[in-house]
Amino acid sequence: MKIDYKNAPNDNILCVDMKAFYASIELIKRNLNPLEAHLAVVGDKKRKGSVVLATSTALKEKYGIHTGSRLFEIPQHDEIIIAEANMQLYLDISMEITKLFNSFVPLNSIHIYSIDEAWLNLNGTEKKYGGSLTTAKKIKQKIWDKFSLLCSMAVAPNMFLAKVAMDIEGKKVGLCKWDYSDVKTKLWPIKLSKCWGIGKKTEKKLNSIGIFKVGELAKLPLSYLENKFGIIGNQLYYHAWGIDYSKLEGHYQDNRHNIGRGITLLRDYNDLEEIKTVIFNLAEEVAKRARHNNLRAKTIKLSLSFSYQESEKGFSRQTTIKKATNLSQDIFAAAIFLLQKYYRGETLRKVTLSLGNFSNNSYRQLKLFGSDEKKIKINQIRDQLEKQLGHDALFYARNIQKGSVKNKIDNTIGGHKK
């Protein structure tokens, strides 16, 4: 099959990756140079096995410590700083950077890939800011002027090529631009293991048939890849030729679609009452978030991840109730129904509870002689007291029973300290 780039997407897509984001923020906070100082960000300084979440460039280059290393692997030198993760600060700065992007392009031209990475569609910015590279340089300079943070960038005709260009060349030179004429000389020599979008399982299958580089993948017939990998085979083929037909669309968390919270347990849980207490903690959290967003849910989903010692990984089950709710008690009752129906005593290491199928909170059916109004009032009072006085202002006694994870839920974001 002959590739015709005339019909391929030809946009000005900018991929931006904040360099050593967490570590740089911590160093700037300490008035240290993010390029020269040695710092590692960990989840918990008190646990020797705590995972390293980020490292400064200097620490990585000099000591070989990288994301995924453990705290006990870091040498005890005076020049090395160990910082505990401050996820709320990182999220706040990430939001400010997104606002900066928005000063150059509309929100629907920004796709947030992660807390420190995004794609921007620069189409239409030429008249105001100049060509795509000129615009990218201005964005890069503004990030430095406002936050003292460095970033890697790449411009390409589509999202895939921009991401790969940023990973392969942009991280080395700061800013680069690839187009379709660069596919054979820059994309094809890349090893599959270094190419974004190719997972380890897919790489292993391709290696088994003698394919180790992107250029070798491009030489395989489209029909062969589709037969072997299905729809993913189609994507592999076009990506190998530098083509990506996916459109960049604004990407935001939609609380009307799903509200959920998961907690990874610090030890194995197999006591039924302790598990119920964890579910109660989570029910309070997701119910509070639903009330905050003025939403009521009809679908409650419970997901349990088992310990590695179990033969199965876990399960996810959901139930839909007759009347939408945002009351902790109702959500807890629905989750316990799922627990009793599907749980068979396995050892747990993670519990997740989520809500869906929302309606607006402005309308609700009231029981003439029911207790809903009392429950609603209690939840409203607790929300108000928590806002004014903190998480421990007023809480149910179950939150201090054995197995409770309330304190961890209240003080972490994404599993890390706020």
| Secondary-structure element order, N to C | EHEEHEHEEHHEHEHHHHHEHEEHEHHEE
What is the CATH first-level class name of one domain?
A: Alpha Beta
CATH topology of one domain: Dna Ligase, domain 1
Give the name of the CATH architecture of one domain.
2-Layer Sandwich
Helical coverage, percent range: 25-40%
Largest beta sheet: strand ordering: 5-6-1-7-8
Dominant shape? globular
Q: Determine the mean pLDDT.
A: 87
Strand content: 15-25%
The CATH homologous superfamily of one domain is termed DNA polymerase, Y-family, little finger domain
Care to count the β-strands?
A: 14
Counting helices, strands and paired strands, the structural category is alpha+beta
Number of separate helices = 15
Contiguous runs where pLDDT drops below 50 for at least 5 residues:
251-255, 362-370
Major sheet attributes: 5 strands, mixed
How far apart, in Å, are the first and last alpha carbons?
A: 52 Å
Radius of gyration: 25 Å
GO molecular function, one term: DNA-directed DNA polymerase activity
GO cellular component, one term: cytosol
Family: Belongs to the DNA polymerase type-Y family.
Pfam families: IMS, IMS_C, IMS_HHH
